[in-house]
Amino acid sequence: MEKELREEIRKKVAEYYNEVLTKKQSHKIPASGKVFDEKEMVNAVDAVLDGVWTHGRFAVAFEKAISSFLGAKHCVITNSGSSANLLAASVLFSHEVENRIRKGDEIITAAAGFPTTANPVIQNGGIPVFVDIKEDTYNIDESLVEDAITDKTKAIMTAHTLGNPFNLDKIMSICKKHGLFLIEDCCDALGSKYRGKYVSTFGDLATFSFYPAHHITMGEGGAVVMNSDILEKCAESIRDWGRDCWCMPGVDNTCGKRFSWKLGGLPEGYDHKYTYSRLGYNLKATDMQAAIGLAQLGKLPSFIEARKRNSGALRSALSEFDCLAFAESEPGAEPSWFGFIIRLKEGCGFSREQLTGFLEKNGIVTRLVFAGNLTKQPYLFSGNIDYRISGSLEKSDIAMKNTFWIGVWPGITEHDISYIYETFRKFMGGAR
User: Fold this and answer.
1) pLDDT band, residue 432 (cuts 50/70/90)
2) Active-site residue set
3) Handedness of CA 52, 54, 58, 63 (dihedral sign)
4) Alpha carbons 228 and 74: distance in angstroms, whole number
5) Which of 176, 201, 224, 399 is the most buried (most CB within 10 A)?
6) Which of 306, 371, 393, 361 is nearest to 113 (CA)?
7) Rounded Cα–Cα distance for residues 331 and 20 (Å)
8) Are 51 and 287 in contact (CB under 8 A)?
9) pLDDT in tens, 276-331
10) Residue 431 has what pLDDT?
11) What are φ and ψ of residue 356, in 5° steps?
C-alpha cells in the first residue's frame, strides 16, 4: 500500500509542476536563479514521506555524488555556503590538526569579495589579512601574497571570484613554500576547472554554496570537501554540535561501546552521544534539501555548459562597446561562470549608476562584485574588529566603484542575450 500511495503522490506532484509552475513567467532577466523540474519536487516530497527529515539517505547519497563528481575523497554537507566557510575555517583551528591555526594567527584573503570568506577567520579568533585583487580576473593578486606573509601567517582562504579560478599554480607554490593551509572558496565555482582538474581539489579544504543563485541549489545548503581523513572527522564533528559520537541521526551505539568511554573529565561510561570533543554548532542540512540537490546534480553538466555559452555570447555581443572591459581568466583556467563581469573604463563619459539604473529600468537585473572593498564595509570600517591590510587596495576600490555583473545562469535564453545587447546599444546611443 505504501508503495502505491507514494507513486500516486509523485504523479500528483509532477502534475502540479507541469500545470502550475511551468506557466509562471517573469518579465525581468534576473542576475541569477534556479532551473528545476518535477524531479526536484518529487525527490523533496519523497524525503518528507520518509519521515527522517534531518540527515538521512538523501544526504548520504548527495555527499557521495558530490565527492564522485569532483574527485574528492570526502564531502560534508551543511545548511548553507556561509556555514561551509565557517566549518572549513573552524576545522583548521581544531586541536587534532597538525600545525593548526591558533587565536591571533593570520589568514590571507582577497579584499574584494563576499564577507563570509573573511568572517569565519574573525569568528575563530584569527586575523584576516586583506590583499588586493587583479583588475582583469578579480581574484587575489598572487604577486602580492608573499609580501603579506609574516611569522603569524598560517593559511590562505580566498574565493574563485564569480567562478573564475585564481592562479592555483602560484598560490599552491606559495602555500608549499611557507607551510600554509589553503581553503578554496568555490561557492561560485562549481564545475570550474584549472589545468583540467576541478577547483576544490587543490587545497586542504574547499567550500560550496547551494543557495538558489548558485550552480545547483538545495534551496539553502552548502558543502565542505577534502581528501584528509582527519579533516573530515573534525568537519563532521564540528557540524554536528562538536560531538565525539559519529552515529547517524536516530541511530545508537555505532561504536559498540556507547557507555564505556572515558573522555575529558567526564565520569567513565558517560553517554557517548552527549560527549563533545570540539567547539561545534548544528550546521546540518536536512534530507529534503539533499533530495533537491541530488536531482539538481543530474542537470549540472548542462548547467555548466549553459553558463559558458551565455558568457561567451554576452562577451561577443557587448565587445563592440569600447568603454567596457570584461573579466579575463588565467592560462589553463576553464571557468564555470557565475556572472558576467563588466567594468567601466576610465573616461567612458557615464557612471556605473547611470548604466545599471538604465538596465534595471529595462528589466535587466544587475549586481555589484559583492561587498566591493570589504575594509570599507561598516562592520570593518568601524574599527571594532582586528584585521590587517597588506599594501594598497587600489584595484579593490576600482571594483567597488566601477564594476558590476549581469546573469549567465541557465535560465538566460538567446532572446534574452539579444535583448541585453539592444538595451546596452540604446544606452550607448544616448537613451539615458
Assistant:
1) low
2) 214
3) negative
4) 8
5) 224
6) 371
7) 46
8) no
9) 999 999 999 999 999 999 999 999 999 999 999 999 999 999 999 999 999 999 99
10) 62
11) -65, -35
Kindly report, residue by residue over 272-290, the tens digit of the pLDDT: 999 999 999 999 999 999 9
With cell 567562478, the residue in question is 163
Instruction: State the pLDDT at residue 119.
Output: 98
The residue among 331, 338, 414 whose CA lies nearest residue 142 is: 331
Can you tell me which residue has the cell 546599444? 425
Tens digits of per-residue pLDDT, 223-251? Answer: 999 999 999 999 999 999 999 999 988 88
C-alpha cell at 17: 509542476
